[in-house]
Structure formats: structure tokens, C-alpha cells
Amino acid sequence: MCGRCRCSIRPDDVPRACHLRNTSVRQVDADRYRPGYNVSPGSYLPVLRRESGGDEGYTAAVHCMKWGLIPSFTKKDEKPDHYRMFNARSESIGEKASFRRLIPKNRCLVTVEGFYEWKKGPKKQPYYIHFDDGRPLVFAALYDSWKNSEGEILYTFTIVTTDSSSAIKWLHDRMPVILGDELSTDVWLNGSSDTKFSSLLKPYEKEDLTWYPVTTAMNKASFDGPECIKEIPLKAEEQSNPITNFFSKKGTDGNKQSSKTIKTSTKDSTKNDPQSDVKEEAEAQANVEPSCSGRTVTETRSDVSTISPGSDSKVDLKRDYEKFLDDSKPRTAELGKVSQTPVKKSKVKSGAEKQATLRSYFTKS
């Protein structure tokens, strides 16, 4: 589809843009033409058509017509709607009465600098499409004339469209028929009624067609000026592809699940803390009935031997504790060596990494 274009070309330059040479060309209603960067249906544009000749010998004319076909059989008192037929599908122009009767003698060429297409999504993004060397694009078109109730004759045209080229299918599924060389423009403009035009009505596949994103202010037909074709950077937004959203959601759920697993593991590691285990085993040991010898020995995960309560358990615990303190005191000779050696900084362990000691266990007991 082609519903917006940039047309600021001068009417005098239209024949050259259409590869027309050594031909007498006249201009018709050139004063109605208003150049613009955001031209929409209902506007006057310069159109190159064949001229029947006449006394002055013109063979072609640059005729300013309104964009949006109004068939000649439209009722005179009917209000014209230029948005109804501003495009004609190449696949059906030979079947529909509005277009079929125009193919033999009412073919024409429309010249623009570029056109716009919108990428569908949560927010429609316009793109400006043009030739990379800046030369004008020439579209295949059909025109007709209609007389209204006041007797005024109105000339209108429609742009022929086809499937999008492989390069811009991601943007839109339709594009105007672009006649990119002198042979194709000559055949469409001057070919006989018996000519097979199907070979011309194909997507433009050459690599010299380029595009870039422009401001969303283009969404309004009233917005006009050089800012219409100014390239803008696109923000990184979430794609509207449902498959992409699905996997993105799965990734988020996976992160939540991982976070949940980490929290659970943290709780488990707290429960499995050696200091807590020693305390729990000590409490469990207190509930165990003494054996015939008055003692019961249980081996913990940290290889700490705990003694069950008995008649002499307190004495044994005190004796072991005093021996532990004596072993923990630094010797005098070693202290002297330490004072002469720089202290090496040790890595401070977090609370989860600290291990229970015998001293902490006996202090709590």
C-alpha cells in the first residue's frame, strides 16, 4: 500500500525523471500543485500522461491531478471520496470495472522522491523509503476524469501496487509498482493496448531501495516539512511478537524460581549450621537415658564427642574445659616471634561461613 509520499519535485523536472527525452510536453493545471513532504490522498500531484496530439504537436503532458481515483461513472451529485481508490491492486486491475477500462489508454506515471510505510505494533512506527542516490521514484498509475453536478471536470489517479519485495516484507505486505528504468517507463506509458503489462507489475527487488525510521508525528496528515524525512533513532522496546513475549515470560518465571530456590537453600543452610547442630544434639543427648556405665557417647557431624549427663559428668566437663583453655594460651616464646613478624590480614568470613568451636559450645552449656 502507498498512502503517503514526499513530492517536492518541480513539474518541469517530471519528464526527465520519467526518462522522457526529445518529446514535446505541455503542462496542465500546474498552479494547483503544492509541493509537500507529507502528501496524502486528495492532494494535487504532477502526473505524466500521453497527449492525443493536437495542433501544437504535444505527445505528452504533465497534468496536475488529484490523488484518489473517482471513476467517470460516479454520480454527479455524489461527494467524491479520494481515500476509497487511492491504490489499485495489480492482481485485480484487469478484473474490476473501475480499473479495467483504464488500462488501454489511461495509463500514467507518478513521480515522487519517496514514500512512507508504517510498521504495525503497539505503537505504529513510520519509515521513509527512497532510492539511496536520491533520484526520484516513478510509480505506475491509472487516471480517469469525472464531471460533477456543476459541470466541472475533475482528473484523478490511483497508484498501482503489488506484493512487497523480499527486503521490506518485514515492514509491509504491499508496495507501489516502481518502474526503475527507461524501458519499463516507456512500455507503461506508450505501450499498445495489446501489450502484456504483467511483467512490469512486479515487486522492485534491486538493492538501491533504502529506508529508515522517521518521527511518529507523520501519523497526522497535517504534519509537513523537512522534519518528515529526518531519520530518528529507535528506542529499545519490547517486541510485540507473541513468541518472543512467551520466552521472555518463561525466563522471568525461571528467575523467580531460581530466587525462590536460593531462599530455600539459605534457610536449609541455616538449619544445617554446625553450631545449631551441636546444640540440638546436646539437647537430644540430655534426654537419652544413661547406660549401665553411667555414660552414653554420641558422634556428631563435626566429630565432636558429647558426654551424656551422669554423676561425674560435670567434673569431666570442667576438667576438659580447663585443659582446652591451657592449650589455647599462646606460649611466651611464640609471642616474641609474633611481635617481630608483620601481622598477615586474614579474610573475614561471613556469618554463614563461621564454624562452631568447642569453646563456643561449652560457653553455651
From TrEMBL:
Top-level taxonomic group: Eukaryota
Alphabetical list of InterPro entries matching this protein: SRAP (IPR003738), SRAP-like (IPR036590)
Keywords tagged on the record: Covalent protein-DNA linkage, DNA damage, DNA-binding, Hydrolase, Lyase, Protease
Gene3D superfamilies in the record: SOS response associated peptidase-like
Compositional bias ranges of the Polar residues kind: 288-311
Feature: compositional bias, Basic and acidic residues: 265-282, 313-334
Segments for region (Disordered): 240-365
Gene Ontology molecular functions: lyase activity; peptidase activity; single-stranded DNA binding
Pfam families linked: SRAP
An individual GO BP term: proteolysis
Family: Belongs to the SOS response-associated peptidase family.
Record-given protein name: Embryonic stem cell-specific 5-hydroxymethylcytosine-binding protein
Organism: Spinacia oleracea (Spinach)
Gene that specifies this protein: LOC110797312
